[in-house]
Every structure is written in structure tokens, then in C-alpha cells.
UniProtKB/TrEMBL annotation, chain A:
Family matches, as SMART domains: G_gamma (SM01224), GGL (SM00224)
Pfam families, alphabetized: G-gamma
GO MF terms held by the record: G-protein beta-subunit binding
Listed GO CC annotations: heterotrimeric G-protein complex
Protein's name in the database: Guanine nucleotide-binding protein subunit gamma
Subcellular location(s) per record: Cell membrane
From TrEMBL, chain B:
Annotated gene: gnb3b
Name of the protein in question: Guanine nucleotide-binding protein G(I)/G(S)/G(T) subunit beta-3b
Cited PROSITE patterns: WD_REPEATS_1 (PS00678), WD_REPEATS_2 (PS50082), WD_REPEATS_REGION (PS50294)
Domain of life: Eukaryota
Gene3D superfamilies: YVTN repeat-like/Quinoprotein amine dehydrogenase
Family: Belongs to the WD repeat G protein beta family.
Annotated coiled-coil segments of the chain: 1-28
Residue ranges of WD repeats: 55-96, 141-181, 182-223, 224-265, 310-342
Biological processes, Gene Ontology terms: signal transduction
UniProt cross-references to Pfam families, sorted A to Z: WD40_Gbeta
Length: 72, 342
């Protein structure tokens, strides 16, 4: 590695940091209560489509071998 | 020299001011949290899933698994130096891919089902065509200067990687070259998750931060703090407006993108093991988190309560996944087994 460090590398780094922070500061934020309410609504509206919540009937269970005979 | 130092000091002051501004803006919208909003939702009760299959085949620790988009095939990676593609309905092994380097840490299935990718301590991401007569190496993506911790296909032409060199990278699979390098983390990147619309992704790293990135611009849009140790796992909530992280600090957290902050923490005084992996059920209500304590604990994402546990592994649970059809959950462990539950 060269002993000559880039004279303005600290400057470049802090300039990048300022630019990034300005970007992140400009985000438009919604209230946590609204965000949480929408997440809750999504869960409840989709609960009936969630097999791990509703349960998987044995006859339709892809991971369980069928117990009944196969009709040929 | 003095002028430059003065400029640097002024900019550092501006950074501090901006950080204070961001915290104040977050606080201003922090008018509640998830568990208070969830108060009226019915309890899910005790979630008791049964072990349906134990997949035996690997000879060493399993580090990673990923479901195919067909919800039937699944690929797993073990430090026995193999990737195995399984038919989870029959339990049969479909394809075995021998790896050049046994030190694999991540594996991914392409949405098409034609390709799988893996990588680890070799610092590379290798892409294989598994539809050929015998698995064929398509590309070796070699540019990271640290281990490959996670990879995810956008399509058969693009793949996203996360690395111990603190960067994430979008690759063009036709040329094998890097398209965009995502730099901003100051610790090893451990995990990433793609948004459904593939315009953004989130990453978790050893700097205890999660970051949201614009996939096409290459910029970091938001940074989320709160964890006090490495973030090992990250997944989007199904509506795409939030994501869940799992950390060595023994907790999981849900962050909302639009309020730009944490909305709930999943932790329990009796759980003193780091979180290695996590996945969500299709409605987002259940979080399956794999821990170093050999179990996969199930959390009610809205109420923040532990509602069940998948016990059966004899070593750390290193990976978990729910397929697209939501019909079950797969856990993979250092005990060399994969288990399917529903």
C-alpha cells in the first residue's frame, strides 16, 4: 500500500455521508398508528387464505401421503 | 490544510444535525405501536404444527434452503459440499449438485426453476443450470472481496448478492459482470430480501442496521436502526410496506417503510439465543424464526407474542422458508436434516 494517503479522502467520505443523510432525512413519513393499522388490516383480510393459520385438511396436505386407496 | 479541516468539521456538524433531524421526524410520527393497534384482533391461539417429513440426505450442517416458485421443489445447501434439489411432496431427491467449494453459506432458486445459485467462503456466487442432463455451471460471479452470505434471483438474467465485504451487488448473468454495487453498510452484509415489484430490496448487516435500496438507481433510500447486534435474517412482510429482521441480539423486529422506523419487537426473557433465520406465513400474521437454541419459534406478528414452537432438530436451526402457496414451513438445521411442518 502506498504511504501517500489521498489528501481529501476524509473530505470525500464526509461529503458522501452528508449527501446520504440528506436523502434519508427527506423521506415522507406516515404515522406509526396508521402504518400499524394497515398491517393489521392486511393480516386479517388475508387470514382465510393462509393455510398455516386455517390449517391444512389431511386430504389436501401435499406433504402427507394420502391414506386412502387410489382409484385407477 | 486548515481550510479543509474546517470544511470537514462543518460537514460533520451538518451530519450530526441531520441525524438529530431524522430522529425528531421519526419521533413526531411515533404515535403508537403495533401491539396497541392489534389489540382488537382475535388471538391466533396456540399454533401447533405437525412434523410431516424429515428429509435425510445431507452429511453435514445445512446452511441454507430456498423454495422454488412452484411450491414443490426446494433446494438446500450443506457444508458436505452439495446442493440437493428435493421434491417435497414425495421426499425424493431430484438433483445433486457437487460444489467446487464446500463452504457454502447461501443457496437460491431462480423463479423459472431452471437455475440455482450458491456461494460462501469462496467469495463467489456460482449459478447452475439444473435442467441440463447433469447440473452445468453457467456462471461464476467473482468480484466480491468477502464471503457470499445471501443470493436471490430476479430472473434467469439477474441476481442480487450480499457479501461479507459489506456490499450488495446486482449482476448481469448474460455477461457475468456486476451491474450495480450497493455500498453503505459498515459491517458484513448477512441477508437480503427482494420486494415483490423488484424495484427495491432490503439488506441486514453486522453493523446492526437494515437498509432499503433502490435496485435500479443503486442508492440507499432508508436506514433502520434498533438492533444491538448483527442482523442475520430479513424478510418482507407480504404487503411490501414492512419487513422483519432477526438478530444475534436474540430479538426480531418489524420495521415499517412508510413510518421509517421499528413498529414492534419480538423478544422474550426466556429466549437467550440468536436468531439465524426467519420466514412469514402468507398473511404475514405468523413469523417463523429459527434460533441457535435448536428451535423454530412462532410469533404472532401483530401482538408480539410467542404462539408456538417447532421442536425436533438436534442442532441450530439455520434456515427456514414458507413456499409461495403457504402450505407449510421448512426448517433446515446444522443437524443435517430438513423438516417440513404444517
Amino acid at each position: 500500500m502506498s504511504n501517500i494517503s489521498a489528501p481529501n479522502s476524509s473530505l470525500v467520505l464526509v461529503q458522501k455521508a452528508v449527501k446520504q443523510l440528506r436523502l434519508e432525512a427527506s423521506v415522507r413519513r406516515i404515522k406509526v398508528s396508521q402504518a400499524a393499522a394497515e398491517l393489521k388490516t392486511f393480516c386479517l383480510q388475508n387470514a382465510h387464505k393462509d393455510p398455516l393459520l386455517t390449517g391444512v385438511p389431511s386430504s389436501d396436505n401435499p406433504f402427507r401421503p394420502p391414506k386412502s386407496c387410489i382409484l385407477l | 490544510m486548515a481550510a479543509e479541516k474546517a470544511e470537514i468539521d462543518a460537514l460533520k456538524k451538518e451530519c450530526d444535525g441531520l441525524r438529530t433531524q431524522i430522529e425528531a421526524a421519526r419521533k413526531a410520527v411515533n404515535d403508537g405501536n403495533m401491539s396497541s393497534a392489534a389489540g382488537s384482533a382475535t388471538d391466533v391461539g396456540r399454533v401447533q404444527l405437525k412434523l410431516r417429513k424429515s428429509l435425510k440426505g445431507h452429511l453435514a450442517k445445512i446452511y441454507s434452503m430456498h423454495w422454488s416458485s412452484d411450491s414443490r421443489s426446494m433446494v438446500s445447501a450443506s457444508q458436505d459440499g452439495k446442493l440437493l434439489v428435493w421434491d417435497t411432496h414425495t421426499g425424493n431427491k431430484l438433483v445433486a449438485v457437487p460444489l467446487k467449494s464446500a463452504w457454502v453459506m447461501s443457496v437460491a432458486f431462480a423463479p423459472s426453476g431452471n437455475l440455482v445459485a450458491s456461494g460462501g467462503l469462496d467469495n463467489m456466487c456460482t449459478v447452475y443450470n439444473i435442467k441440463a442432463a447433469s447440473p452445468k455451471t453457467l456462471r461464476e460471479l467473482d468480484a466480491h472481496t468477502g464471503y457470499l452470505s445471501c443470493c436471490r434471483f430476479l430472473s434467469d438474467n439477474e441476481i442480487l448478492t450480499a457479501s461479507g465485504d459489506t456490499t450488495c451487488c446486482l449482476w448481469d448473468l448474460e455477461t457475468g459482470k456486476q451491474k450495480i454495487i450497493f455500498t453503505n453498510h459498515i459491517g458484513d452484509c448477512m441477508s437480503l430480501a427482494l420486494s415483490n415489484d423488484e424495484n427495491t430490496f432490503v439488506s441486514g448487516a453486522c453493523d446492526s442496521l437494515a437498509k432499503l435500496w433502490d435496485l435500479r438507481e443503486g442508492t440507499c433510500k432508508q436506514t433502520f436502526s434498533g438492533h444491538t447486534s448483527d442482523i442475520n435474517a430479513i424478510q418482507f412482510f407480504p404487503n411490501g410496506n414492512a419487513f422483519v429482521t432477526g438478530s444475534d441480539d436474540c430479538s426480531c423486529k418489524m420495521y415499517d417503510l412508510r413510518s421509517d422506523q421499528e413498529v414492534i419487537t419480538y423478544q422474550d426473557a426466556s429466549l437467550n439465543a440468536g436468531v439465524t433465520s426467519l420466514t412469514l406465513s402468507n398473511s404475514g400474521r405468523l413469523i417463523f424464526a429459527g434460533y441457535d437454541d435448536f428451535n423454530c419459534h412462532i410469533w404472532d406478528s401483530l401482538k408480539g407474542e410467542k404462539v408456538g414452537v417447532l421442536s425436533g432438530h438436534d442442532n441450530r436451526v439455520s434456515c427456514t422458508g414458507v413456499p409461495a402457496d403457504g402450505m407449510g414451513v421448512c426448517t433446515g438445521s446444522w443437524d443435517s436434516f430438513l423438516k417440513l411442518w404444517n
